[in-house]
Amino acid sequence: MDPGILCFRHCTIKSVFCKTIPEVCPLCQELIVNFNIEPFRIPYPFRNATGQPTSIVIKPSCGTFLDDYNINDLLHIGVVNSNGKLYEFDKYGLIINNVSQWTNCIAIQVVPTSWDYYWDEILNAMTQDIKWKSINYDKNTMNCFNFVREFLHKLNYNNLQFENGEDMCKKLILPKLHEAIRYITLYKNLKDNRYFISD
């Protein structure tokens, strides 16, 4: 759920982050009449997977991004088809539509809607492959990242070919994860404080 983080500038070039706009500036202690930068809401980076058709989705392996995630934690990754159905691979094998754990994830749109049919076709073909049975799962060599990487390889769209899981993380996941981490940092700073000041 979006906690509604706001940002504004009043008396300096420093940004004030908060959940409600105060009457008095926390920096200069003056009554706020005008703003250097009008208050705006920081975009919430997390989505419900079922509302993100034709996307790659990422979440922490345990817990949620806002309350539990640490940069050293493992991530879990899946694929959403054009109808919002989720496909993921873990120690239980290929799982389809276990959406309850994917209500606050990072969604990455990688193809235009004109690719929806082909996207679904590739996913459906992969569900028939015995490679994605639970017996083949290995947390290091045959995991959710291998599933998504193979899916993207078979999709063969533009520059979505990755040498390995590390390459996929660096080029596809990290840019979106950095946005999310900035938001998480703001959220954690505002958990016990009314304001957070930043340059």
TrEMBL record:
<feature type="domain" description="MKRN2 opposite strand protein-like C-terminal">
    <location>
        <begin position="39"/>
        <end position="190"/>
    </location>
</feature>
<dbReference type="Pfam" id="PF22795">
    <property type="entry name" value="DUF4796_N"/>
</dbReference>
<dbReference type="InterPro" id="IPR032016">
    <property type="entry name" value="MKRN2OS-like"/>
</dbReference>
<dbReference type="Pfam" id="PF16044">
    <property type="entry name" value="DUF4796_C"/>
</dbReference>
<feature type="domain" description="MKRN2 opposite strand protein-like N-terminal">
    <location>
        <begin position="3"/>
        <end position="30"/>
    </location>
</feature>
<dbReference type="InterPro" id="IPR053922">
    <property type="entry name" value="MKRN2OS-like_N"/>
</dbReference>
<dbReference type="InterPro" id="IPR053921">
    <property type="entry name" value="MKRN2OS-like_C"/>
</dbReference>
<protein>
    <recommendedName>
        <fullName>MKRN2 opposite strand protein</fullName>
    </recommendedName>
</protein>
